Amino acid sequence: MRLIACCLLASLTAGTAIAQQRPVLTDADYTRAAHQLAPWTAPLVDHAVRSAHWIDARRFWYVDTDHGVPTIMLVDAAKRTKKAAFETRALLASLNATGLKEQNAAKLAIGDFMPDLARNRAVLSVGGKRYACAMVQPYACTESAAPSAGQIAGYLAQQGPADAVLSPDGKRAAFVRDWNLWVRDMATGAERQLTTDGVKDFGYATDNAGWKHSDQAIVIWSPDSRKLATFQQDQRAVADFSITTTQVGHSKVDTWKYPFVGDKEIIQIQRVIVDVDAGQVIRLKMPAEPHRSSLCDDVVCGEGPQDMQWAKDAKTLAFVSTSRDHKVETVRIADATSGAVRDLFIESVPTWFDSGYNDEGINWRYLSERGEILWWSQRDNWGHYYLYSAATGKLIRQVTQGQWNVDHPVFIDERSGKMLVAGVGLEPGMDPYYRSIYAIDLKGGAPKLLTPERQDHIAIPSSDGRYFVDIYSTPQEPQTAVLRSADGSVVTGLAKGDVTRLRAAGWQAPESIAVRCSDGKTLCHGLLFKPAGLDPQRKYPVVDYIYPGPFMGTIPSRQFSAAQGDAGALAQLGFAVVEIDGLGTPRRSKAFQDYYYRDMGKQAVPDQRSGIQDLAKRYAWLDLDRVGIWGHSGGGNATAAAMFLYPDFFKVGIAESGNHDNRNYEDDFYEKYLGLLESDGKKTNYDLQANQDIARNLKGKLLLAHGMLDDNVPVSSTLLVVDALEKANKDFDLVLFPRAHHGYGDQSYYMMRRRWDYFVENLMGATPPKEYRIERPGN
Q1: Of 122, 143, 164, which marks where a domain is finished?
Q2: How many CA atoms lie within 13 A of 420 on its CB side?
Q3: Is 551 left (phi over 0), alpha (psi -120 to 50) or beta?
Q4: Domain Peptidase S9 prolyl oligopeptidase catalytic: where (predicted)?
Q5: Which residues of the chain have a pLDDT value below 50?
Q6: Are strands 213-214 and 207-208 parallel, antiparallel or unpaired?
Q7: How far, in Å, are 31, 73, 458, 717, 723 from residue 65 at the CA level?
Q8: Which residue from 296, 325, 293, 285 is spatially nearest to 309, judged by alpha carbons?
Q9: Domain that holds residue 138
Q10: Does 724 fall in a domain?
Q11: Which residues lie closer than 8 Å to 140 by C-beta, 6 or more apart?
């Protein structure tokens, strides 16, 4: 560590016979920084288990690694035993004998593992191929035989261009073709058309939210694999949006429907149920409604339960209708045979409604066996569960309460009413973002803490809820994995992460921080990455990384990661890197998250300034005269806003792919957080969030970047700021990626290097190496 610091200091001071001469950074300095990125650091963490996969209610498997070599571990919870499924190097030898051609066991990337424990055999997916192996040495692996027509159909159903959705029994897959819904038989590959009246821009199960579009079929299979819940999506009157390629000769143009904030016509859905056996479409007896969900800016939100949930007997479907502005949620139940719809209850809120947290998914559940709806709401300022009758829509009771949040459900036993949930903010003195696992009862009562370790916990339950794998860590301590019973007692330890090799490579753990938010009273939490070789007598430039929410914060997880983007790399170059979850972000109180409602132009930005100022009172080596900021997407928006609103504080900014004026962005996102567009003919409620209108305030150095093929945030959003800066006669820098979408793909490392150069030159006052190339290990 001392050697690294001395090398960096030497490169910064070499040739400085004259004190004013600019320090020079070398290729070696950048190489040491690059070695703090995930491709270099992640392989240096041993025994950090990140997931587990249940085979049945008693047995599961996980992957443990030691010096990069993976070992598949099998655990029997009832017997309290664990063992390696294979000796990895012997397995590799057997796979190579079959034609794999990989000599390094650390590069054995196992994509899937499907054991047949009764026969003591397993199928492995490695390098895109499937191998059948015995689970006793010498393993005698063989490449799986050429798939049958049905297997090919199954592969296409899960991986192919049709983006089909497999039924629960695995026998059929639904997909979209020519705006209609089809089903494929998995055994024979035979296809059958289910709907016939779908036409262009008025198709069935189509996936288009404007900012996101694909060929994926949006369907929810019934538990008996006989029905589909979906919709006919009407976007015929919605405005077109296009992106144009840059190439020699005529450009290619991709056009689709993309509604903006304030558009009169937005995407509407007409809900339907499709009886797959009968080929019958049952339209729900209700009007068309906006393309919305109770949580995210799409009609579906990630994996897991959605806003359409089947009864276990498939006779009814519970669903939620969301108003255009996300202020009104209507919970309904439809009869799957007649299409009749009953309204159960309505929740209205003054700001916006969320049914959970975006990274964990929708939290409400249809408990059909109990005839109840388990509803998640922040109506008392905290995220809690409320139990409603599915027959009458009447509130039965509030299940959880207090100044903490139910983060997400882990397991629900409908018959007993027992639940496992993850919760945040309940344990005194603990980081409010760390999740703990609790046992609760639908009858109410105090939650019981099952995971006493003061770290962030992830629980993976068995199918019957008798056990759960508990994986816990912090930003400083790697994952520990244990198996617990439902009462929280530890059945057996599984693995304990080890960062010995990572530390030897120069890695420094970030420091968890709590600083004053801009309101002067609330604490905002975050991370501080201290400069490598820190000398408290020196002053260090500060780089603030920001993502302003409201649906997520700057720090996506409090789980351990060997690299948080390039924060560690920038710290290695000599910057202090700060990440703060400001006001307006989730997992605190509803008032905390609502703080910037209708004033989204400031979203979380004032808290960056107040937080860094507060931090500098503790650490005098933070140089408040040299503060930079950067972010991507919403963070790009916030970066430009910071440079324009606080030009005397933020001196250097890098705004990547920012949605700088959300009137040029999808309707569903900002209409939720800022409200529907309102105008008096002269001013609108969206004027305060338009970065181009305050661009004239720029004093520092600003680099704007955007992908020309961005199909999420239109490039026009950045070009509005470019135009305003030019009109104001301001100097700035611009990087455009002709082939890039919202992320920069194969140019991501180029953008990262430009980012390092920009901060080194303009914030540190040094000279970066000429056109350093960041490449992955082995390239």
Answers
A1: 143
A2: 26
A3: alpha
A4: 569-763
A5: 1-19, 146-162
A6: antiparallel
A7: 26, 10, 19, 44, 52
A8: 293
A9: 53-143
A10: yes
A11: 94, 133, 134
